Amino acid sequence: EDKVVQSPLSLVVHEGDTVTLNCSYEVTNFRSLLWYKQEKKAPTFLFMLTSSGIEKKSGRLSSILDKKELFSILNITATQTGDSAIYLCAVRVQRGNEKLTFGTGTRLTIIP
Amino acid sequence: SAVISQKPSRDICQRGTSLTIQCQVDSQVTMMFWYRQQPGQSLTLIATANQGSEATYESGFVIDKFPISRPNLTFSTLTVSNMSPEDSSIYLCSVEEAVDEQFFGPGTRLTVL
Question: Which of A67, B78, B101, B104 is the most buried (most CB within 10 A)?
Answer without folding.
Answer: B78
